Description:
Elements: H1 5-19, H2 27-35, H3 42-60, E1 64-69, E2 87-91, E3 100-105, H4 114-120, E4 134-136, E5 155-159, H5 184-197, E6 205-211, H6 213-220, H7 222-228, E7 234-240, H8 255-267, H9 275-278, H10 289-292, E8 300-305, H11 309-316, H12 328-332, H13 339-356, E9 366-370, H14 381-384, H15 397-405, E10 412-414
Parallel strand pairs: 3-5, 3-6, 6-7, 7-8, 8-9, 9-10
Antiparallel strand pairs: 1-2, 1-4, 2-5
Amino acid sequence: MFLTELGFSHILHHSVSAIFSPSFGNPSRLLSRLLRIRMGDARLAQWLNLLVCSVIMLKATGVPIGITILKTAVARGAVCLDGSPPAYHWDKGFGSGVNNWLVHIEGGGWCHNVTNCLGRTNTRLGSSKKMQKEIPFSGILSNRQSLNPGFYNWNRIKVRYCDGSSFTGDVEAVHPATGLYFRGARVFRAVIADLLAKGMGKAENAVLSGCSAGGLASILHCDNFRALLPSGTIVKCVSDAGYFINVKDISGAQHIQQYFADVVTTHGSAKNLPPSCTSKLRPDLCFFPQYVVPQIRTPIFYVHSAYDSWQIRNILVPGVADPHGTWRNCKLNIKNCSPAQLKTIESFRLQFLTAIGGVSNSAVKGMFIDSCYLHCQTEMQETWLMPNSPLLNKMTIAGAVRDWFYDRTPFQKIDCPYSCNPTCHPPMFDPNVHLE
């Protein structure tokens, strides 16, 4: 028997009302109830399932948080690529979290030459003029205890990324032909100084986190962040999908090594990379976490996939190494890969695990290394904490990071090889985003 249109509307109305009511708790509970409805139309059941999941995610995204344009930073030369002031979004802490601070750095790749950087000035990644005035907070930035139990009531800040160097650049001269500014390190210092003046200087707990290029920044700046806060503050870092490794691409070329070398040169980053690394190695190598992490003193947690979709698509198989597009379908979805391609990807996984292996030698460092084909997991509610989020040892990323931060339980888990983890889901990324 088919549900009538009126019956469907009735269920829809009550489902949405329930989800948005103050008493709404575990989203899987309502979902399971709806799926038990005896409907003769299986397709309608599927649509209802999709609808409820969509509404749940709509609520999970949270209230939009307004932008703060840091105009005072301009006088210090701390500006985006186009000379506009830096920016961040701040959702203030409440209750027991009022003196705790989580500073999360936005990702967005890098620019490695003047032409590439100039192109970014027409986007939010190079100009605060192009940034959204409000953005929703979810995942590690959510203000809902059920969705972010470790940090929901902290001061949660998202630092916008507009310099193209993971906040390491500092060239005094403005580029004469284009008017470009390479001042990422100054932007980082200006934003942190502003937050310290607004209350972070009295923080009891503080976390520096970030995703992708922001995850790399949270590694490179981890000890600096610790040094800028009071000695009595408990400070830790969380890097999500920021552990980019130095490996050859499928053609045998050192594509990513040359790319990072160009980033460091273009932005004048050498003097702002960790001296514990640059005193021993070339500055461009110190843009790779594997050469920096052994010297990091501040506790840090790594959230990563051993099959990171961005690294496979841009480091292992950049477009220049696959001119005929043989890997295109494989890169879009690992399920499309041939046995030979899977063997190459598995070799990449082993190189990644070797590069990050030293982390497990330290009790103050944590890791959640799953086998899901995706990139960035702390900002998305789906992967941070939902009923169907990725699990390791029956633990979500949110639970692992929370227990590690509060010293409840150490967490250093590495997933089994693809495709052994049933909690991994299809990739969620834009196929048009690439390195070149």
